Each structure stands twice: as structure tokens, then as C-alpha cells.
């Protein structure tokens, strides 16, 4: 049974406070888990409880969430069976009593949820990826590496948030990671030669001022070739527009900095996307439109959904309520999965299951604010979705997840699988 639950305030990769939870079981097994935090958040995400006390961390302290773990959640959960993950998560959801976990905080609840899962796996002497995914969990994930950062993750002029290199032609995970890490290094040289900045954004990708969003893609393709790989065969491209951040009304009005054309409608963006998908080896496009632009998403998916993976992030916020709407109306064909958007391990697994049942893909993701916690790597293998995004080959909070995946691949040995579709 669970004998100790204790939270503390730590810092994330942006230097903002976040929650860490320590759990101990009566058999002596101990574990910790740390909660990530996003910057370009969807309107319907579960609520990250922050103190609002302006004398500490500009109001971003999480001492209230820590106190909720220690004084409100722990007393109810102590003595419970750590192997009953769904019961524990549903007990916390009921105790919170709101639809978006705004009472006790999704950061408080998720910290416990992750730490309990990890303690149970350890106590059962099972790797976390197999504890959560079953003994059949043996498929590694294609690392979609975000090598150019824009949008709200950097201060450059690039509107689209993420430009990812996708090593779908590699024979295994460690080779895939090498393909894109080498591309990252070659890209640095190309940017340097052009006299551009090689400093990195929040997710470890370069954040130069470029001529256009298209310039970012063309420069990445150049880097792929120069690194000795074939664009589209060895390494493809994935994009996250995070279109909320350049929409003026969260619906079908947009304003791109680089375009010079001023206002754009969703149809203009869809036409542009169609052109790019013809021209470039793009295999996945996340949040191409803003979260309330449901008609835009339907149009986008109708026109491109048979060619690429269309992922809803801010659109669905890992919530089965919105994913089911999306499935019914064909708003996309894939959902991004972020544990802290919904706030428990159990609900994240339910979101994955809903996607799987509908024949959708699902894309496991870190947040722009991360910690050294590698839960995500095990979770991605457990969910068997075939791909994950964890930023670039720089910044240890990003690389920690990739290193854990290397470890899992090594543990699995010949049993390990790796493929895109
Ligand atoms: P966030 O960005 O963690 O800042 O929300 C990640 C994403 O939009 O996919
Ligand atoms: Zn996104």
C-alpha cells in the first residue's frame, strides 16, 4: 500500500516552479515524478494551479499545489493499493470535483498519478513501459526532433512553432536518433555560414530570424542532404504551426509576421499547406489552424488527411470529450497526447485508446517547460504509437527522454521494433 506522499516545489527548464512528488510504498519502494508545463496552451487544458503571490516567482509559485498534495490528496490516498492506478486517479478527480482540475490543480494530481505508476512498476520489478503497456510493449518511437523553434518558444520572426526532422527511414531508434542529431549539427553550420543566430529556443532547436516560414523548411532539407540523408526517404519533415499563437480570434482570422500579406483566412493557410505538402516531404502537421476554427480543421483534413497525419493539440487537449467530437466530425486524424493537458495517467491512456479505436494515430509529446523526468519515454513505448516529440538534440531535459529510449531499446535487444506506420 501507499505509505508516503510528499510534494515539493522545484524548477522546470525555463526556471519556473513546478511540482515534484515523492511516493513510498509499505514494501519500501520509493519513486519521484516531476510535472511539465506548457507555454502555448489550449484554452481547455486542465488547470495548472499557480499561487498568484507576486512576491514569489512573479506569481508562478506552486506552493498551493504542493500543499494540496500534502494535506488534501495524501490523507485520502494513503493506504490505497498502488496497483489500482485507475481507482487512484478517479479518487483524485472526484476529490477535486471540477471538470478542469482547477480546485486542487492538475499539476498536483498529475505528480501523484505519475509517481504512483512509477512506484508500482518498481515494486512489481517491471520496467515502467511494460507496467503501463503490457509485456507486448516493445515498439520504440520515431523521434520527431524539433530543430527549428519559432512562435511562442523563441523571440525570432518565425511564426510556426516547430519544424521537426523525422527519421522514419532508419532501421532502429538509435540510428534514427543519430540521423537527426547529425542533421541538427549540420544545420548549425549552415545557419552560421549565413551569419544567422545559432542560439536555441525553449525546446532546444535553433531560433534564427529567417526570410520566411518556408525558408525554415528549405534550410532543414538542405541540412538533411548535407548530412548525407535522403529527404523524404531517410528523414521527413513534421510541423507544428501552433496556430492559436498567430490567430487574432482563435478562429478563422490569422496574421503571420513573415508573410507581409497581413490578414489571412483559414482557406489561405490550407491552400498554402496543400502547396507545401506537394513540394516538401511533410508527413505530419499539428495545429495548422486555431482551436476554434473547427470548419477550417474539417477542410484541412478533407484535403490533406489522406496524405499526412493531421494532429490536434490545442484542438483536443488530450481530452476524450473533444477527441470524440473530432472523430465524429473528422476534424483531424490524430491527437497529440500530453499528460498534463488532462492531468492523470489514466485519462491520458483513455485518450490514446479512443484514438486507437477510431483508427486514428496519436502523437506522444513533452511540454516546452520540462524537467529531467523521463516518464514520457516509457509512456511513449507503453502506448505503442510509433512516434514522439521531445525537442532537439540539445538541452538535457530534452535529451534525457531520448537517452531513456536508448536504454529501453538496449534492454529490449532483439525484441525491439521501430517503424513509422
Ligand atoms: P507547449 O508547446 O508545451 O508550449 O504547449 C508544445 C506544443 O504546442 O506542442
Ligand atoms: Zn502543439
Distance between the termini: 40 Å
Rounded to an integer, what's the Rg over CA atoms? 21 Å
Percentage of residues in helical conformation: 25-40%
Strand order across the largest sheet? 4-14-13-12-11-10-7-6-5
Number of helices: 13
Q: Mean of the pLDDT scores?
A: 97
Largest sheet entry: 9 strands, mixed
Give the helix/strand class: alpha/beta
Q: How many strand units? A: 14
Give the names of the bound compounds: 2-phosphoglycolic acid, zinc ion
**Based on CA inertia axes, which overall geometry fits?**
globular
Element-level helix/strand string: EEEHHHHEEEHHEEEHEHEHEHHEHEH
**Poorly predicted regions:** none
Determine the strand fraction and express it as a percent band. 15-25%
Secondary-structure blueprint:
Layout: E1 2-11, E2 17-25, E3 30-34, H1 63-77, H2 85-96, H3 106-123, H4 128-133, E4 142-143, E5 145-149, E6 162-166, H5 173-193, H6 213-226, E7 236-240, E8 253-255, E9 263-265, H7 266-279, E10 282-286, H8 294-304, E11 309-312, H9 320-329, E12 334-337, H10 339-342, H11 345-357, E13 361-365, H12 375-383, E14 387-389, H13 396-412
Parallel strand pairs: 4-14, 7-10, 10-11, 11-12, 12-13, 13-14
Antiparallel strand pairs: 1-2, 2-3, 5-6, 6-7, 8-9
Binding site for Mg(2+): 240, 286, 313
Keywords: Cytoplasm, Glycolysis, Lyase, Magnesium, Metal-binding, Pyruvate, Secreted
Binding site for substrate: 153, 162, 286, 313, 365-368, 389
Amino acid at each position: 500500500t501507499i505509505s508516503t506522499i510528499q510534494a515539493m516545489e522545484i524548477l522546470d527548464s525555463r526556471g519556473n516552479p513546478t511540482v515534484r512528488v515523492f511516493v513510498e510504498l509499505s514494501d519500501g519502494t520509493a519513486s519521484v515524478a516531476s510535472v511539465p508545463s506548457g507555454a502555448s496552451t489550449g484554452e481547455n487544458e486542465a488547470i495548472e494551479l499557480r499561487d498568484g503571490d507576486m512576491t514569489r516567482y512573479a506569481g508562478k509559485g506552486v506552493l498551493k499545489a504542493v500543499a494540496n498534495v500534502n494535506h488534501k490528496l495524501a490523507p485520502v490516498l494513503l493506504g490505497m493499493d498502488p496497483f489500482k492506478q485507475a481507482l487512484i486517479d478517479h479518487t483524485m478527480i472526484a476529490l477535486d470535483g471540477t471538470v478542469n482540475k482547477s480546485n486542487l490543480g492538475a499539476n498536483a494530481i498529475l505528480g501523484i498519478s505519475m509517481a504512483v505508476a512509477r512506484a508500482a512498476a518498481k515494486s512489481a520489478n517491471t520496467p515502467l513501459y511494460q507496467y503501463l503497456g503490457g509485456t507486448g510493449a516493445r515498439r520504440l518511437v520515431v523521434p520527431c526532433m524539433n530543430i527549428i523553434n519559432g512562435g511562442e518558444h523563441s523571440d525570432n520572426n518565425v511564426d510556426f512553432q516547430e519544424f521537426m526532422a523525422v527519421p522514419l527511414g532508419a532501421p532502429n531508434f538509435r540510428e534514427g536518433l543519430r540521423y537527426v542529431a547529425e542533421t541538427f549539427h549540420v544545420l548549425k553550420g549552415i545557419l552560421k555560414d549565413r551569419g544567422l543566430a545559432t542560439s536555441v529556443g525553449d525546446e532546444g532547436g535553433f531560433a534564427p530570424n529567417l526570410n520566411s516560414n518556408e525558408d525554415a523548411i528549405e534550410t532543414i532539407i538542405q541540412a538533411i542532404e548535407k548530412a548525407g540523408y535522403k529527404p523524404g526517404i531517410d528523414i521527413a519533415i513534421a510541423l507544428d504551426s501552433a496556430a492559436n499563437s498567430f490567430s487574432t480570434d482563435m478562429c478563422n482570422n490569422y496574421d503571420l509576421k513573415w508573410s507581409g500579406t497581413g490578414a489571412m483566412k483559414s482557406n489561405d493557410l490550407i491552400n498554402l499547406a496543400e502547396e507545401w505538402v506537394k513540394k516538401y516531404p511533410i508527413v505530419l502537421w499539428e495545429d495548422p489552424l486555431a482551436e476554434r476554427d473547427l470548419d477550417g480543421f474539417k477542410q484541412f483534413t478533407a484535403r490533406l488527411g489522406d496524405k499526412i497525419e493531421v494532429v490536434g493539440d490545442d484542438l483536443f487537449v488530450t481530452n476524450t470529450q473533444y477527441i470524440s467530437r473530432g472523430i465524429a466530425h473528422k476534424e483531424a486524424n490524430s491527437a497529440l497526447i500530453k499528460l498534463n493537458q488532462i492531468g492523470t495517467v489514466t485519462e491520458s491512456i483513455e485518450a490514446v485508446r479512443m484514438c486507437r479505436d477510431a483508427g486514428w494515430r496519436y502523437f506522444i509529446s513533452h511540454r516546452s517547460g520540462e524537467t529531467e523526468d523521463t516518464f514520457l519515454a516509457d509512456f511513449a513505448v507503453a502506448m505503442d504509437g510509433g512516434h514522439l516529440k521531445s525537442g532537439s538534440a540539445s538541452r538535457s531535459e530534452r535529451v534525457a527522454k531520448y537517452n531513456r529510449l536508448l536504454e529501453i531499446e538496449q534492454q529490449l535487444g532483439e525484441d525491439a521494433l521501430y517503424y513509422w506506420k
